[in-house]
Amino acid sequence: MLKIDALEFGYRSNRKILDDIKFDVSNGECVAILGNNGAGKSTMLKCLNKIISPQKGSVVVNEVDILKLNRLDIAKNTAYVAQKSEGSRITVYDAILLGRKPYIKLAPKKEDYDIVEKIIESLSLEKFSLRYIDELSGGELQKVMIARALAQEPKVLLLDEPTSCLDLKNQLEVLKLIQDITKEKEIAVVIVIHDLNLALRYCDRFLFLKDNEIFCYGGMDVMTSENIGAVYQVPVTVQSYQNQKVVIPLT
Ligand SMILES: Nc1ncnc2c1ncn2[C@@H]1O[C@H](COP(=O)(O)OP(=O)(O)OP(=O)(O)O)[C@@H](O)[C@H]1O
């Protein structure tokens, strides 16, 4: 469904941040983008949505190179939640309804309101729906931004550290919801995430970025102490606890 090929990007012409990035994400699959600070994870996510334009390569969603589309058509394919979001003077309800913008012609239809209300309920945002988003806590705002992206009903969902401001209960609930939607709607999800144990629990495939390139990409088989140690320069052990792989640092 999502096919990235030969992607190359540098903020300045003399320094490549991403070199020959090539990977596929299937329907119903969630991929974790892993790697240390400054590895280029956020940059890569922005290239997949043409927020920044790669110097080379293609990002194909259902046979169409989205790098050749305009912003409105990209928004019908791909939703993106940034690492940091700014609050503004609109209500939570309206902020989520904005996710429907690519589909709204003159005014929202009943279907748009129904989608927004269902998402508000599934993220337990009912009691916030009439609050202004510039009055929310960091975690509440993060959930609203995820809700807006889900309201967009994308084929590809790009999330940059979606749980960085969330408490443990919300981290688990939000990632479980994303996992369920990934399978139910058969969308392709790409998540930049620092917590390896959350990635192991909720993602299907794992892509490590290191030194501007893909260090390795695959299923559980790439989540080894050797790969994690080489990428993060920290000795770890990978153990199994109640049929769930967990990463434990050895320092
Ligand atoms: N707008 C920009 N202009 C110039 N350089 C940038 C810009 N944004 C990021 N960079 C540089 O590009 C490199 C990759 O940054 P990026 O934010 O993609 O890393 P990351 O892997 O997401 O890091 P983190 O885990 O810390 O969020 C870094 O060296 C960063 O300093």
UniProtKB/TrEMBL annotation:
InterPro entries, per the entry: AAA+_ATPase, ABC_transporter-like_ATP-bd, ABC_transporter-like_CS, Metal_Ion_Import_ABC, P-loop_NTPase
SMART domains linked: AAA (SM00382)
Keywords: ATP-binding, Nucleotide-binding, Transport
UniProt-listed Pfam families: ABC_tran
Gene3D superfamilies, per database record: P-loop containing nucleotide triphosphate hydrolases (3.40.50.300)
Keyword Hydrolase: no
Record bears the keyword Transmembrane helix: no
Sequence ranges assigned to domain ABC transporter in this UniProt record: 2-236
GO molecular function: ATP binding; ATP hydrolysis activity
Family as reported in the entry's similarity comment: Belongs to the ABC transporter superfamily.
UniProt name for this protein: Fe(3+)-citrate ABC transport system ATP-binding protein
Organism this protein belongs to: Acetobacterium woodii (strain ATCC 29683 / DSM 1030 / JCM 2381 / KCTC 1655 / WB1)
